[in-house]
Specification:
The chain is mainly alpha-helical. Helix content is about 75%, strand content about 0%. It is elongated.
Length: about 110
């Protein structure tokens, strides 16, 4: 049995059938209430998941487009250092040296 998970109604029918199988052991008075609550929670969960995935995909697409634009600028030579690093360039004299840089400088002086 193949299930078309791309269709919302087919998913709902499939889940309802599976839940009916699981609920056979529960009495009729609780079965329908439980089933309705489970279906509403599943629908809400799937809806929230789809929204989150859609949002993430949108962010990924935006980031990819920005990266592509930056790569084109770098290839054409029109990008300045601020765009390439994503931060403002600090003058060499104004920034503090890291511990590694200090060690390397000490080795160079020897």
């Amino acid at each position: 049995m193949t299930v078309d998970l791309q269709n919302a109604e087919a998913r709902k029918t499939y889940l309802s059938a599976k839940l009916d199988d699981l609920m056979d052991g529960i009495s009729d008075s609780y079965g329908t209430v439980l089933m309705d609550e489970l279906i509403s929670r599943l629908e809400r969960t799937v809806s929230e998941f789809n929204e989150e995935v859609g949002s993430l995909m949108g962010q990924l697409k935006e980031n990819s487009e920005r990266r592509d634009e930056l790569m084109e600028k770098i290839k054409s030579g029109t990008a300045d250092e601020t765009e390439e690093t994503g931060a403002e360039a600090e003058p060499e004299a104004d920034r503090e040296m890291s511990a590694w840089e200090k060690r390397l400088e000490a080795l160079d002086k020897k």
